[in-house]
C-alpha cells in the first residue's frame, strides 16, 4: 500500500530535483565568467585572465575561469558544458556577424589588366554581396610584385584597385560601400627579394565584411 | 584665379572648423560597422546617447549599449568581430590599425553583460596590444575566440 505512494511522490518531485541539480551547477559557475572557444578556422588560441589577486591561462576549447566578486582570484580552469555556454551566451553567439570573405584577383605582368581566371570570379563576388544580410563593406586593396620602380608600382597598385572598383560599380554596387586603398610593392603576399616577378603578388584583395 | 583659390581654401577651412565645432565624426575614421542589432541598441558618443542600427559606423571611444533584452554585433576593419547580449555595455577604448607604421592596438572595456570576441588581424600581428578590460579582471588575447560575462 505504501509503495505506489512513494513512487508517486518521487515522480512528483522529479522535476524539482532536476531544477535543483541545475541550480547547483549554476551556483558553482562564477558570476563573472570567461570561456575560451575554438576559432572559426578550428585553431584554439590563448587568453590570460588576470587581476591583482592572481591570474589563469586558458588554452583549451571549452575551458573557463572566473570569479564572483571583484578582488577575488580567478578560479582554476574548468570545463563549461556546451549546454551551459548556450544558456549564458546564446544571444551574443547568435549576434556574431557573418564571416569576412576575401577574394584574390590577379593581374597580367606590369598592367592593370586582370587575368582571365580572376575576371571570371566576378559572379561569385556579386553572389557573396547579394547573400549578405547586413549591408556589406567592401575593401579593395591593390598590390604589385617587386619588379620595377617602387614609385611606378605605387601607381600601378592604385590603378589595379581602381580597375576592380570600377568593375564592381559597373555591376550596380553602391560606391559608398567600397573603400579603395593601395600598398604598391610594400605588402607582398609572398615575400621576395627586390626586382622579382611574382604572379601571386600582382593582386587586388577584395574583402567583404 | 587667385581669388577663386583663396575662396576655395577659405570654404574648406570653414567646413573643417564647422565639422570640429559640431563634433561631426567623419566616416573615414570608422573602425567598424554594426552588422546585427536587436532590441534597444544605443551608442554614447561625445557624451550624447543616440540609437545605433545595422549599417552604422562605430568609432574609437564609443560606448555601445544593449538596453534590456537584445543584442548587437560589430565587424571591425581588421576583421575582428564583437557581439553582445542583453544588458551589455562595451567601450571601444583604443583601436589602431596601421601595420606599415607598426601602430597596432585594440582595447575594449566590457562594463557589464555578455560578449563574444572573435579576434582579427591586429591580434595576429601584435598579440600584446590586444586586451579586454573588465571591472574584475583584464584579459590578454592571443589570436582567438572567447566569451566573457560580467555581472554587476
Topology:
The complex is a heterodimer of chains A (209) and B (152).
Chain A: H1 2-28, E1 32-37, E2 46-51, E3 54-58, E4 63-67, E5 78-79, H2 82-94, E6 101-106, H3 116-119, H4 122-131, E7 138-142, H5 150-170, E8 178-182, E9 203-208
Parallel strand pairs in A: 7-8
Antiparallel strand pairs in A: 1-4, 2-3, 4-5, 6-9, 7-9
Chain B: H1 2-21, E1 32-45, E2 48-51, E3 57-58, E4 63-76, E5 81-84, E6 88-98, E7 103-118, H2 121-125, E8 130-133, E9 138-142, E10 145-150
Parallel strand pairs in B: 7-8
Antiparallel strand pairs in B: 1-2, 1-3, 1-4, 4-5, 4-6, 5-7, 6-7, 7-10, 8-9
Architecture overview:
The complex is a heterodimer of chains A (209) and B (152). By secondary structure, chain A is of the alpha+beta class. Chain A has 2 domains: 31-95, no CATH class; 101-208, 60s Ribosomal Protein L30, Chain: A (2-Layer Sandwich), CATH 3.30.1330. Chain A is built from 5 helices and 9 strands, in the order αβββββαβααβαββ. Chain A has helices at residues 2-28, 82-94, 116-119, 122-131, 150-170, and strands at residues 32-37, 46-51, 54-58, 63-67, 78-79, 101-106, 138-142, 178-182, 203-208. In chain A, the strands form 3 sheets. Chain A has a 4-stranded mixed β-sheet with strand order 6-9-7-8. A 3-stranded antiparallel β-sheet of chain A has the order 1-4-5, with no helix packed on it. In chain A, α5 links the parallel β7 (138-142) and β8 (178-182). The longest helix of chain A has 27 residues, at 2-28. Chain A is elongated. The mean pLDDT of chain A is 91. Chain B has 152 residues and is an alpha+beta fold. Chain B has one domain. Chain B contains 2 helices and 10 strands. Chain B has helices at residues 2-21, 121-125; strands spanning 32-45, 48-51, 57-58, 63-76, 81-84, 88-98, 103-118, 130-133, 138-142, 145-150. In chain B, α2 (121-125) links the parallel β7 (103-118) and β8. In chain B, 41% of the residues are buried. Mean pLDDT of chain B is 86; it is low at 12-26. At the A-B interface, β1, β2 and α2 of A face β1, β4, β5, β7 and β9 of B. β1 (32-37) of chain A pairs antiparallel with β10 (145-150) of chain B, so a sheet runs across the interface.
Amino acid at each position: 500500500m505504501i509503495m505506489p505512494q512513494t513512487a508517486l511522490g518521487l515522480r512528483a518531485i522529479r522535476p524539482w530535483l532536476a531544477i535543483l541539480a541545475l541550480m547547483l551547477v549554476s551556483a558553482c559557475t562564477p558570476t563573472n565568467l570567461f570561456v575560451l572557444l575554438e576559432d572559426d578556422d578550428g585553431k584554439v588560441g590563448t587568453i590570460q585572465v588576470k587581476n591583482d589577486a592572481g591570474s589563469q591561462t586558458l588554452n583549451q576549447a571549452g575551458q573557463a575561469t572566473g570569479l564572483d566578486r571583484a578582488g577575488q582570484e580567478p578560479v582554476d580552469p574548468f570545463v563549461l558544458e556546451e549546454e551551459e555556454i548556450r544558456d549564458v551566451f546564446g544571444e551574443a553567439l547568435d549576434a556574431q556577424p557573418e564571416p569576412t570573405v576575401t577574394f584574390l584577383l590577379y593581374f597580367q605582368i606590369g598592367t592593370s589588366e586582370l587575368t582571365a581566371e580572376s575576371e571570371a570570379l566576378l559572379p561569385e563576388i556579386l553572389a557573396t554581396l547579394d547573400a549578405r544580410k547586413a549591408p556589406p563593406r567592401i575593401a579593395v586593396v591593390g598590390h604589385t610584385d617587386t619588379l620595377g620602380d617602387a614609385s611606378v608600382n605605387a601607381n600601378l597598385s592604385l590603378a589595379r584597385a581602381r580597375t576592380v572598383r570600377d568593375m564592381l560599380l559597373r555591376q550596380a554596387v553602391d560606391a559608398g560601400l567600397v573603400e579603395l586603398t593601395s600598398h604598391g610593392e610594400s605588402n607582398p603576399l609572398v615575400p621576395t627579394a627586390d626586382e622579382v616577378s611574382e604572379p601571386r603578388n600582382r593582386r587586388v584583395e577584395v574583402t567583404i565584411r | 584665379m587667385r581669388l577663386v583659390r583663396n575662396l576655395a581654401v577659405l570654404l574648406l577651412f570653414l567646413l573643417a572648423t564647422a565639422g570640429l565645432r559640431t563634433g561631426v565624426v567623419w566616416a573615414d575614421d570608422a573602425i567598424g560597422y554594426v552588422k546585427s542589432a536587436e532590441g534597444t541598441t544605443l551608442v554614447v558618443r561625445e557624451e550624447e546617447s543616440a540609437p545605433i542600427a545595422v549599417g552604422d559606423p562605430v568609432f574609437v571611444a564609443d560606448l555601445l549599449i544593449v538596453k534590456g533584452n537584445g543584442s548587437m554585433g560589430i565587424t571591425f576593419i581588421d576583421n575582428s568581430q564583437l557581439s553582445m547580449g542583453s544588458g551589455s555595455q562595451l567601450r571601444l577604448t583604443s583601436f589602431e590599425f596601421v601595420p606599415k607604421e607598426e601602430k597596432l592596438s585594440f582595447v575594449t572595456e566590457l562594463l557589464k553583460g555578455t560578449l563574444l570576441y572573435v579576434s582579427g588581424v591586429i591580434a595576429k600581428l601584435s598579440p600584446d596590444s590586444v586586451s579586454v578590460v573588465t571591472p574584475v579582471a583584464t584579459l590578454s588575447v592571443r589570436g582567438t575566440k572567447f566569451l566573457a560575462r560580467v555581472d554587476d
